Amino acid sequence: MSVTAEPITRVVAALSKLPGIGPKSAQRLVYHLLQSSDQDVEELANSLLALKGSLTLCSKCFNVSDSDPCSICADYQRDSALLCVVERPADIPSVERTGKYNGLYHVLHGALSPSRGIGPDDLRIREIALRVRQIGVQEVILATNPTVEGEATAMYVRQQVSPLGVRVSRLARGLPFGADIEYADDITLGQAFDSRQGF
Amino acid sequence: MAGPRDYQVEGLVIRDAVVGERDRVVVLFSRDEGKLSFIARGARRPGSSLGPCVQRLTRGRFQCVRRRSLDLITQAVTVESYARLKADLWPMSCALYLAELVDSSTVEGAANRRLYDLLVQAMDTIDQGGGNDMLLRFFELRLLEQLGFCPSLRRCVACNAVLQPVANSLSARQGGAMCPACTPFCEDALPLSVDALKVLRFYLANDMDMSCRARLSAQLAAEVEEHLRRFLDSILQKELKSRAWLSRLRAEALLTGNREEPTIARRPELEQD
Fold this sequence. Notes:
The complex is a heterodimer of chains A (199) and B (273). Chain A is α/β, with parallel strands linked by helices and 199 residues long. In chain A, 41% of the residues lie in helices and 13% in strands. Chain A has 2 domains: 6-54, RecR Domain 1 (Helicase, Ruva Protein, domain 3); 64-170, 3-Layer(aba) Sandwich (Dna Topoisomerase Vi A Subunit, Chain: A, domain 2). Chain A is built from 7 helices and 6 strands. Chain B is an alpha+beta fold. Chain B contains 8 helices and 8 strands, in the order βββββαααβββααααα. Chain B has a 5-stranded mixed β-barrel with strand order 1-2-3-5-4. A 3-stranded antiparallel beta sheet of chain B has the order 7-6-8. In chain B, β1 (6-19) and β2 (23-30) form a beta hairpin. Chain A binds chain B through residues 20, 112, 114-117, 119-120, 147-149, 151-152, 155-156, 159, 176-180, 183-188, 190, and chain B through 15, 19-21, 46-47, 49, 52-53, 55-57, 78, 81, 83, 86-89, 92-93, 96-97, 99-100, 103, 241-242, 244-246, 248, 254.
């Protein structure tokens, strides 16, 4: 006979499926919820239910949105000559926070990973060329992560869109603010030197 | 676990995975202890001193701490970042294939210094612009040799007769070449041309540099590739995912450099038996 009530076991099992949540963390969350007010728990449950029901993928940029097209694609103030390619929807708010970019986005929903069997057909790569042709993009900015997989994705996308005659650029790499040069790797430091600017 | 709590390893990162908010699980193929798994805390944080060193296809020296679960990487120094290799899609894909090959064919903690040296030499060669199909085939065969699965290429594996310069066959299940007389009794035997047999022997008799300079006809290269693929799949009991990626790149003609037009494998050094 189990010493834990069945509803608790069920919620612990469900929460344990979330990334970064182990069984112990899940159990802690469940007991926290049990101590919370009924209103808080109800609000959480309703929010979770509404999450899947009210959200959709933008048919243009494939960002997760509550409308189609999303607010960015529907905004005529944005510069449609610029297309920033990101790996995940969560990358868009990060770029937006910089306040430096006013173009459109394209979300790939992942990165190429040959050893994990993730190829171009598993990502929204083919759609980039369609968008470039449809909306007259003049520059594609590759903002994939500076990892092996992100680099592979960027290089593959570049080879796909370069024949279309658009400018393809990659986010600059250099020393992050607050970093020590002593600990910088030679790739980052080398590119920081290559991209140095007048001061 | 035996040994001091703090220790140092030198190795190449062959696999990594994100874990939690800022951490990374890192699988090294180390020089002295074979394949090892670690956790690199905070490696995904911008400005982390560990971050660049624990990127896949980076060779480094790692200061580690033993723990009950995964050992922890506390400090790291990059020995070779293979920047040139990572700047082009085909070399990077070749290197990822080799890393997956080593990852799939080894078990944790089984030291294999020769395989480590072979892997590092292959990475160095790719980094210097030598990432071609010959290198991949050479590596596959030498990896089989290092793991003790080198195909028998001198005598028939069934009757032990010396192989004659005629069309023989190669059986992954039997572990080597078979003479024409024994071939009908083996279900998985695949025809092995005289030239393909010579190429395989050539790879075993020569170093990486010499092997990479061999030029094979497209047909002969495909035959050698197919034999080694069947051999590896038979031993690993699975198909390598990055191999499909290499095939796709070839098919899309996205390859850059090192893709010279095939020529016939009638080079003097290939004739040596």
